[in-house]
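To the wet lab folks,

You asked to see what we're planning to order before we commit. Fair enough. Below is the target structure as tokens, and below that is the sequence we designed to fit it. If anything looks off to you, flag it before the synthesis order goes out.
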């Protein structure tokens, strides 16, 4: 048996984990078996999603750690060694080392391609500084097909599926560049805002390895999206410092390097960071899995307090929401952030854990956001009734209806969970089942709105 485990590193790691638990007095041997079954189920699911055995074991142990204090202690004590295993492939595992080198080469190539893709139009005279609307319409097309290609390669997606994905990106490119938009009109700006949302669903299809109907796979994509957001923000902060130091150093010797930053460092770095951030999430999920729930618990009370103060101020002063376009976009972004907090808190929570104070806080946040969304919807509907419809008003109306439905049903499910009449799993299923609605609405705005409003 020992020989078998030595030949199978995953079994060896599971045995080490099992032995660790067995030596803890606080845990019964039968509980160890139950935890092991759970661990093996997690590992199998993660490996089906494309993770290597080492990655799957690490992530599964971390997730178990969120559910059990003893397993959590194991995860904490061994995380450094496991982290090193992910960064540097073991020398005696030639196959793993070759795979790691190959993946590094693929990621490096895709990162370079993403970074340089934004410079290709300039070869044909379409300069970034003079054609901002062209670049706004196409910025997601510069990088998301490459990111999708990375997951198609990593998940070994069957040809039929990636052909459909390729067709979707080609269709998006045609709409973005063949539609005869009038210069700087609403439908063009709406396309630039909504196309990345619609294409992100395509990335999700590739990320899940074609298992988009599997709600667990969708939840993994939610976790990936949240973790990528955190990594990208950290990379952007580091990039900002790099640019500032670069400008400062060259300025010290009398050379103006601002054009290098504006034309190369910032646009190329912004696109390349999407690929690098995605690879970091794939390779080192455990680090951010610890960080993201902490950030969620930190910002949820702050957003709840902000919304409550906002609603209280509106009630006291009697002031309505200004429905100018910029205000509506900012307001919708706030509601999207609230939903992001909800999604990530749901993805990080153990469905079997009893309800606690944070669940009550999430419910208050949901109800507050629901009221705020209702007020915004009423203001938009009143403006449409008084002055007629425009692309911006209808897009805002539709987005707020999409958000309202999700917020309302989520609040209802959470209230049921707090009363003990509904399991937490129903909230999880609702959130993952609703994800395609965002992509569908974004696709309607991208494809139908320009035709409906004569490309105005």
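Sequence we intend to order:
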């Amino acid at each position: 048996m020992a020989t078998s485990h030595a030949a199978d590193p995953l079994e060896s790691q599971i045995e080490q984990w099992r032995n660790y638990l067995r030596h803890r007095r606080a845990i019964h041997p039968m509980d160890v078996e139950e935890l092991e079954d759970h661990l093996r189920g997690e590992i199998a699911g993660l490996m089906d999603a494309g993770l290597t055995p080492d990655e799957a074991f690490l992530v599964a142990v971390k997730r178990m750690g969120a559910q059990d204090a003893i397993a959590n202690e194991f995860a904490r004590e061994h995380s450094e060694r496991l982290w090193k295993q992910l960064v540097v492939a073991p020398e005696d595992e030639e196959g793993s080392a070759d795979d790691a080198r190959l993946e590094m080469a693929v990621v490096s190539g895709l990162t370079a391609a993403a970074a340089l893709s934004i410079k290709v139009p300039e070869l044909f005279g379409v300069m970034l500084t003079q054609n901002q609307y062209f670049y706004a319409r196409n910025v997601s097309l510069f990088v998301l097909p490459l990111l999708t290609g990375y997951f198609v390669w990593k998940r070994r997606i069957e040809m039929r599926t990636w052909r459909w994905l390729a067709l979707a990106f080609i269709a998006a490119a045609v709409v973005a560049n063949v539609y005869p938009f009038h210069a700087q009109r609403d439908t063009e700006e709406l396309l630039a805002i909504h196309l990345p949302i619609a294409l992100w669903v395509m990335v999700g299809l590739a990320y899940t390895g074609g298992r988009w109907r599997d709600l667990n796979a969708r939840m993994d994509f939610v976790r990936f999206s949240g973790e990528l957001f955190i990594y990208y923000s950290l990379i952007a902060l580091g990039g900002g410092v790099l640019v500032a130091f670069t400008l400062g150093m060259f300025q010290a010797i009398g050379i103006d390097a601002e054009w290098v930053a504006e034309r190369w460092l910032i646009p190329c770095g912004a696109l390349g960071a999407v690929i690098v951030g995605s690879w970091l999430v794939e390779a080192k999920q455990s680090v951010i899995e610890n960080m993201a729930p902490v950030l969620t618990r930190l910002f949820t009370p702050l957003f709840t307090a902000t919304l409550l103060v906002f609603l209280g101020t509106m009630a006291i002063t009697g002031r309505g929401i200004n429905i100018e376009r910029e205000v509506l976009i900012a307001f919708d972004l706030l509601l999207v952030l609230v939903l992001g907090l909800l999604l990530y808190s749901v993805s990080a929570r153990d469905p079997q854990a009893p309800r606690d104070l944070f669940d009550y806080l999430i419910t208050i946040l949901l109800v507050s956001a629901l009221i705020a969304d209702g007020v915004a919807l009423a203001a938009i509907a009143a403006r449409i009734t008084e002055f007629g419809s425009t692309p911006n008003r209808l897009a805002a109306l539709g987005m707020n209806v999409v958000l309202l439905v999700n917020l309302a049903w989520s609040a209802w499910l959470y209230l049921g969970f707090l009363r003990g009449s509904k399991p937490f799993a129903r909230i999880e299923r609702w959130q993952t089942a609703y994800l395609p609605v965002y992509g569908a609405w974004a696709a309607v705005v991208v494809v139908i709105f320009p035709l409906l409003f004569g490309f105005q």
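Structural context that might help your review: Residues 79-92 have pLDDT under 50 and may be disordered. The first helix runs from residue 2 to 7.

Thanks,
Computational group
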